[in-house]
């Protein structure tokens, strides 16, 4: 399983149809003192008569030892991983802001901004260069959402302290999501699935913590009136 995960790490799976070539099929062909094992996208592994194993990478010209991917090669996670981290960070920051402002129009504005960012990524992740309609929609949504947020700030609905906490929450959520994948890429985590689960868990906990801090700091303390004491019944 570790070698299978290393294959996936070295040869990123872009589509479901490319899963099988990446798999280490483990088909052995034995002839006298030589064993050849198919090693998926890595090529083949050969056990020669001397008892030594050699990894041969697959090239256009055939198998070559120099083209074998290093066992310590960094992992290549898909491009949609950092994009998902950005979407999670933006959502966490906007939710934290919404917890501080607590106005329906601001919540709607935050939703427009998030949908705009999502539409932008949909516009640039296309088989062609980009999708102009998705990018135009992203521009309209972000402009509308930011305009409402600016109006809320002018009206004094957005506190500076809440804005700072929301920004810190967004940054923390981004790195909470990405750190497990950084660790997996460097080989500190054995399985991509573990990195995914950690990213989801850490991101969710960080986002909830940021919103909780905003809610706690936004609660106004009960006012006290000097000289006034509680009355007691006779």
Textual characterization of the structure:
With 234 residues, the protein is an alpha+beta fold. It folds into two domains: 66 residues, no CATH class; 139 residues, no CATH class. It contains seven helices and five strands, in the order ααβββββααααα. The chain has a five-stranded antiparallel beta sheet, with no helix packed on it. Helix 3 runs antiparallel to helix 4, helix 3 packs parallel to helix 7 and helix 4 runs antiparallel to helix 5. The longest helix is centred in the last third of the chain and has 27 residues. The chain is elongated and about 80 Å long. The C terminus is likely disordered. Keywords: Membrane, Transmembrane, Transmembrane helix.
Please summarize what this structure is.
With 234 residues, this protein is an alpha+beta fold.
Lay out the secondary structure.
Elements: H1 2-10, H2 19-22, E1 28-31, E2 34-38, E3 44-47, E4 53-59, E5 62-64, H3 80-101, H4 104-124, H5 132-154, H6 160-185, H7 192-218
Antiparallel strand pairs: 1-2, 2-3, 3-4, 4-5
Which strand-content bin applies to the residues? 5-15%
Report Rg.
27 Å
Helix content estimate:
55-70%
Number of strands: 5
- Output the strand order for the largest sheet: 1-2-3-4-5
Give start-end ranges of low-pLDDT stretches.
16-25, 230-234
Biggest sheet, in brief? Answer: 5 strands, antiparallel
* Principal-axes shape call: elongated
User: How many domains would you count in the coordinates?
Assistant: 2
- Class based on secondary structure composition and strand pairing: alpha+beta
N- and C-termini, Cα separation: 78 Å
Mean model confidence by pLDDT: 79
The helix tally amounts to 7
Q: How do the helices and strands follow one another from N- to C-terminus?
A: HHEEEEEHHHHH
């Amino acid at each position: 399983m570790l070698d299978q995960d290393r294959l996936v790490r070295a040869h990123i799976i872009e589509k479901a149809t490319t899963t099988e070539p990446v798999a280490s099929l483990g088909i052995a062909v034995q002839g006298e003192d030589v064993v050849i094992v198919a090693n998926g996208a890595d090529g083949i592994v050969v056990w020669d008569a001397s008892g030594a194993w050699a990894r041969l990478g697959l090239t256009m010209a055939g198998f070559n030892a120099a083209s074998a991917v290093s066992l310590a090669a960094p992992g290549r996670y898909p491009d949609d991983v950092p994009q998902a981290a950005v979407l999670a960070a933006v959502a966490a920051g906007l939710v934290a802001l919404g917890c501080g402002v607590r106005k329906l129009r601001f919540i709607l504005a935050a939703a427009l901004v998030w949908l705009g960012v999502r539409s932008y990524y949909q516009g640039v992740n296309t088989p062609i260069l980009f999708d102009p309609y998705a990018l135009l929609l992203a521009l309209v949504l972000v402009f509308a959402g930011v305009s409402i947020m600016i109006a809320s700030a002018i009206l004094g609905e957005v506190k500076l302290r809440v804005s700072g906490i929301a920004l810190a929450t967004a940054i923390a959520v981004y790195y909470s999501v990405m750190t497990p994948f950084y660790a997996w890429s460097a080989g500190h985590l054995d399985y991509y699935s573990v990195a995914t689960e950690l990213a989801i868990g850490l991101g969710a906990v960080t986002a909830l913590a940021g919103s909780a801090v905003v809610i706690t700091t936004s609660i106004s303390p009960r006012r006290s009136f000097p000289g006034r004491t509680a009355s007691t019944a006779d």
